[in-house]
Amino acid sequence: MASIGHVAVGMALGRFETGSAPWRRRVAVMAFLSLLALLPDADVVAFALRIPYAAPWGHRGASHSFVFAGAVALAVAGLARWKGESASRWGLLTLAAVGSHGILDALTDGGLGAALFWPFSDARIFAPVRPLPVAPIGAGMLSARGLYVSLVELLVFLPAWAYALWPVRRRRTP
């Protein structure tokens, strides 16, 4: 999956969290949650390290699991508590952002699936229905296939983008 959908999820979660907060806060939270939604794909470094795709630490492996999402959520919740924010709220937002990544990748029509249940199982999981085309990795995104995948994702995630970017209604003070 191209990153468009993952970023849309982070942006929508950020808008949900911030509502009508000042625009700088909204942008910062949307960016933070979008980065968290993209975090599992940091496993592409496995290619450079010559870790096989199908290995537990390969692409779409352990970093795409619910356990990984939970660990990141606990870390963010701890940081939120330290900063005086709601640990449970930030933990749940993080769990949704990071956890959505593996689920969305399981909805693609290619690759090996996502190791959603690692470390309990190394099995790669696909959803029963796979409506999203798999994105080419690396420079392949600059091809006709990459453009096609990007356009499909843009259309599929258009509601999330619209929600995230819809102008905030300013309340008038009497």
Could you characterize the architecture of this molecule?
This is Metal-dependent hydrolase. Pfam families: YdjM. Keywords: Hydrolase, Membrane, Transmembrane, Transmembrane helix. One of its GO terms (molecular function) is hydrolase activity. The chain crosses the membrane at residues 27-49, 61-80, 147-166. Helix content is 54%, strand content 0%. It has one domain. It has 174 residues and is mainly α. The chain starts with a helix and ends in a 9-residue tail after the last helix. The mean pLDDT is 94. The chain has seven helices and no strands.
Report the major sheet.
none
- Assembly type of the shown chains? single chain
Overall tally of structural domains: 1
Mean pLDDT: 94
> Total number of helical segments?
7
Fraction of residues in helices?
40-55%
Low-confidence segments, ≥5 residues, pLDDT <50?
A: none
Structural class given helices, strands, pairing?
Answer: mainly alpha
Principal-axis shape equals globular
Short description:
It contains seven helices and no strands. The protein has helices spanning about 5-20, 25-40, 45-50, 65-80, 85-105, 145-155, 160-165. InterPro entries: YdjM-like.
List the topology elements:
Layout (H helix, E strand, L loop, with lengths): L2 H16 L4 H16 L6 H4 L17 H17 L4 H20 L37 H13 L1 H8 L9
Organism: Corallococcus llansteffanensis
Protein name: Metal-dependent hydrolase
InterPro entries: YdjM-like (IPR007404)
